[in-house]
Amino acid sequence: MQPEVVDQYDVVIVGGGLVGASLVVALAPLNLRVALIEASTPPQTGPSWDERCIAINDGSHRIFESLGVWPALLSEASPITSTHISERGRFGVARFAAVDVGLPALGYNIPFRHIGQTLWQAAQKTAARLICPARLQAMEQSADAVQLLLDSGEKISTRLVVAADGAQSAVRKLLGITAQTQDYKQSAIVTAIRVTRPHGGVAYERFTPGGPIAVLPKPDNACSLVWTVPSDHVEAMLAWSDAEFLKQAYETFGERLGNFKEIGRRNAYPLTQVMSAQLTAPRVIFAGNAAQSLHPVAAQGFNLGLRDVATVADVLATAADPGSAETLAEYERRRSDDRERVSGFTDRLVRTFSNRVPGLRGLRHLGLLALDLTPPLKDAVMRQNLGLGGLPSKFARE
């Protein structure tokens, strides 16, 4: 015997990570019945100097301001006042500075923990029902609703499902929707370092044949370090002593920040691009990593997902039926170009700067010089990196 439907909602969000929790907060001002399904209770860990961070751009900063969570996030945010992009062994450099566009910062480097805790606390203050811990077991679509069965046996009904449940989306799999996966055969080793020269708010991205090494500002002369390397090198690199790892990272990065004198915990993450074959399905929207999971080069992934959130909220603000075909088509229309542009941009960066074809290094060198010296090209890339490339949202007005 099927469990009875006990609750009905306008919107059910599957996945309570950064994107899902952001959407709960974004929908709070609307007259909608909202529920969130999240499998894991958010951990209540405290801060540490070497914790993992996420770089958000100015567009994301504006969205967080509109959501009312920016004052809380700012307490642990390190401003990125400029970026410095180079290639190991070449002189070509591209520089971008906040002062050039009249901003206090191009973006901010913020602990993942702090963003998650801040958004979850904000979500708990809304009228939304947070069903946690709970897992989605089955879905059944009809013309005017979606029935969701949870692992507790509870069955709920909603007019719209927003899948924000990550690159291996359970919603996508339950619906039989495919995803294109590109395995870069690279992994990101993520840690933190202390440096002997003040970083001055500069974020560095240095391309090497094995992959980029990124160094981003943290408080107290500490920096986030994201070192992309061939996956078959990871095991050996994680086995290095701290001194050996610091030595190799310093030699790869260079002298701009002085010596690397202390290192935190190291974790490795395999890198793939996962693109859902569809942005929508009947009465379903995909957002964040459930729609597209990108290589971390240029730190575009979460910022793109937050623009998904802003667009969902924008579209639902005027929708008579949250899950209607017209609502889904409008979301897809507003997100498709931004999604394709950013995913293509990150993919080309990885392929171009990891390619060892003879003669290509010289072209990359000239490309970095041209980027730094050609104002229209530099402005276009700056706009993209600030997160202003998509259709405008009321959550991120220019």
UniProtKB/TrEMBL annotation:
Pathway: Cofactor biosynthesis; ubiquinone biosynthesis. Its cofactor is FAD. InterPro entries: FAD-bd, FAD/NAD-bd_sf, UbiH, UbiH/COQ6, UbiH/COQ6_monooxygenase. The chain crosses the membrane at residues 12-32. One of its GO terms (biological process) is ubiquinone biosynthetic process. Residues 9-342 form the FAD-binding domain. The keyword Transferase does not apply. SUPFAM superfamilies: FAD/NAD(P)-binding domain (SSF51905). Keywords: FAD, Flavoprotein, Membrane, Monooxygenase, Oxidoreductase, Transmembrane, Transmembrane helix. GO terms for molecular function: 2-octaprenyl-6-methoxyphenol hydroxylase activity; FAD binding. NCBIfam families: PRK05732.1, Ubi-OHases, UbiH. Belongs to the UbiH/COQ6 family. This is 2-octaprenyl-6-methoxyphenyl hydroxylase. It comes from Stenotrophobium rhamnosiphilum.
